[in-house]
Design brief:
Elements lengths: L2 H22 L14 E5 L4 H12 L3 E6 L2 H15 L4 E5 L5 H14 L5 E4 L17 H23 L3 E6 L21 H22 L5 E7 L13 H14 L3 H4 L1 H8 L10 E3 L2 E3 L8 H14 L10
Helix pairs in contact: 2-3, 4-5, 5-6, 6-10
The chain binds NADP nicotinamide-adenine-dinucleotide phosphate.
NADP nicotinamide-adenine-dinucleotide phosphate binds next to α2.
């Protein structure tokens, strides 16, 4: 075998192994739970796995709140949900996690217009935003993926507690294993943009863990998950030399959006997850995490720092 044949053979074996692994590990939410009379809020619901999750929640009869930045995309999503499920109980509220003022406005609107919240799905997320600083003085990727959802979750806890049993589901990423988080400087810019993303996704897990402890005995649970690898607009901000290989390889090798939404749906509705809190899920199953994502001291530290960064007020603390 010459070198070229060896490389070609190696690539084929790699593709076959990844494809087999992907098929074998595709978890599916088998729950038939209905959600009539329940309200589910999904952030970043206008595309990708958030939209698939919203379609599923609507098909189960829930009132579905689409928390979206782009109202045009949100309206298109709403119409698609209605035409696919026949459920017209779909509402849109605007939220932009790049601004904490927007998060607070969104929460105010929810409190003014909604009487209950049974499931909060922290799904919105972004990648490839660079090292910009937001109007709130925070690292943009940390704010969109962690500080913003952290603030929103805190602001909505009163409604979630009032509606208990209720669930908080946070979409993180297995990418957390590649993290280099400096807990003393959560806004530290990183030369490799992916590191900013992975750090923020670790913070999702730490927040979810600490929240579960803070909510013990309230009948509000907090879990997080890795949805799998899915080709979605998440990669739209990457430079072309990263975007092109991703667009060629990911759709072929990994999950589609419907498959990518399954673990979120499982955590949000499945009877088997009732009362389960502080866990990390993958492929619709509870998974172990590396020590960095199950370190109580780190959970507490990142929680307290996040409270300071979002300037959480006394009247915004509901645990
Ligand atoms: N795709 C994957 O392989 C993968 C793997 C692991 C984890 N995840 C996680 O899965 C979640 C969903 O991602 P996806 O793959 O479905 O990507 P997506 O299609 O890009 O969806 C992300 C959603 O978040 C919204 N969003 C982004 N920035 C926002 C902001 N500043 N304010 C409000 N909303 C904002 C987007 O809205 P716009 O349309 O306005 O941008 C979009 O609706 C993310 O948390 C991501 O980190 C994805």
């Amino acid at each position: 075998m010459n070198t070229f044949t060896c490389i070609a053979f190696g690539i084929i074996v790699f593709i076959v192994v990844v494809k087999i692994l992907n098929v074998v590990t595709k978890g599916r939410c088998t729950s038939k739970a209905k959600l009539n009379g329940k309200t589910v809020l999904i952030t970043g619901a206008s595309g990708g796995i958030g939209k698939e999750t919203a379609i599923d929640m609507a098909a189960r009869g829930a009132r579905v709140i689409l928390g979206c930045r782009n109202l045009k995309f949100a309206e298109d999503t709403k119409q698609e949900i209605i035409s696919k499920t026949g459920n017209t109980n779909i509402v849109i509220y605007q939220i932009d996690f790049e601004s904490l003022t927007s998060v607070r406005k969104f929460s105010k609107l929810i409190h003014e217009n909604e009487s209950r919240l049974d499931v909060l799905i922290n799904n919105a997320g972004a990648m490839g935003l660079g090292n910009k600083i937001t109007e709130d003085g925070l690292h943009i990727m940390m704010q969109v993926n962690h500080f913003g959802p952290f603030l929103l979750t805190n602001l909505l806890l009163d409604l979630l507690k009032k509606s208990a049993p209720s669930r908080i589901v946070t979409v993180s990423s297995l990418g957390y294993i590649l993290t280099l988080l400096d807990p003393d400087n959560l806004n530290k810019p990183r030369r490799f943009d992916e590191l900013n993303y992975f750090n923020s996704k670790l913070c999702n897990i730490l927040m979810s863990n600490e929240l579960a402890r803070k909510l013990e005995g309230t009948n509000v649970t907090s879990n997080c998950l890795h949805p799998g690898v899915i080709y979605t607009p998440l990669f739209k901000h990457l430079p072309w030399y990263k975007r092109i290989p991703v667009s060629l390889i990911f759709p072929f090798l990994f999950k589609n959006t419907k498959e990518g939404a399954q673990t979120t749906i499982h955590c949000a509705v499945c009877e088997k997850v009732y009362g389960v809190s502080g866990k990390y899920f993958q492929d619709c199953k509870e998974y172990w995490t590396l020590p960095i994502a199950s370190n109580r001291e780190l959970d507490v530290k990142v929680w307290n720092k996040s409270m300071e960064f979002v300037k959480l007020q006394e009247n915004e603390i509901h645990y």
